[in-house]
Amino acid sequence: VLEHRAVKREFDIALPAGMTALVFNTRRAVFKDPRVREALIYLFDFEWINRTLYAGLYRRTQSYFERSILASAGRPADAREREILAPFPAAVKPAFMDGTYRFPTTDGSGRSRENQEKAFRLLQEAGYELRGGRLVEAESGRQLEFEILASSTSQEGLLLSFARDVERLGIKVKLRVVDGAQYQQRLTDYDYDMIQNTWSSSLSPGNEQLFRWSTAAAKTPGTYNFAGVENAAADAMIEALLAAKSESDFVSAVRALDRVLLSGDYVIPLFF
Fold first, then answer.
1. Which of 19, 91, 186, 261 is most buried per CB count within 10 Å?
2. What is the pLDDT tens value at each position of the chain, 272 positions in all?
């Protein structure tokens, strides 16, 4: 290496990076409204966190099958995808259907007024308003607040950075770190508002997708459907990928599932 006879070079391995994310528990009333979830996605400042906590080493995740041929990001839906998604016209947002969507970006300064304004408008549409520096539900006067459950203090840097940005809009965020046994029990019972989780992935997703995203899993304790996804379109896309007889139909079904999940704003995608 010192004599420059060995070449050191980064290369793309093209295997799925999976989805590491902050997960909304949509079973909880605070996250029932998708506009609230979308607003919080706008408030996550990836560029600042990547620069200050991780020396700029990460890339933002844009897909549940990031970095692979199965990812829908950057690719318009093909004819097969449109065919199997046709019974669910409202399931995929236009920008996800045509592959042009990218999660919000900032200049990395730690203060993005543009994203804050977009988030605030969404929260206003969801029925919230600012009163005395607190974001409250207009009808009840209750402050918008939620708890992030963690199992390790190593998560604190990331989670506290996110909480700081959210609190600037008058939202109350609590970070609770619990021991491993308690954390696992609360996951089993879906007893949390938000968690950080990683769903790993391969080039051959299959039955495990039922355990992660199906309506049946959302109602069964102890599954990996941590977000509480109950979406008929997601159920149908999983059925389509499991029933696929050709590689092209399989890839199309997985990408269609990706588009449905991304459109649902069930998580705040992190990085890989």
1. 261
2. 899 999 888 888 889 999 999 999 999 999 999 999 999 999 999 999 999 999 999 999 999 999 999 999 999 999 999 999 999 999 999 999 999 999 999 999 988 899 999 999 999 999 999 999 999 999 999 999 999 999 999 999 999 999 999 999 999 999 999 999 999 999 999 999 999 999 999 999 999 999 999 999 999 999 999 999 999 999 999 999 999 999 999 999 999 999 999 999 999 999 99
Three-point CA angle 136, 137, 141, nearest 5°: 70
What is the rounded distance in angstroms from the CA atom of residue 234 to the CA atom of residue 216? 12
How does 43-80 read in b/e, with b if 16+ C-beta sit within 10 Å? bbbbbbbbbeeeeeebebbbbbbbbbebbbbebebeeb
Pairing of strands 145-150, 194-199: parallel
C-beta atoms surrounding 225 within 10 Å: 25
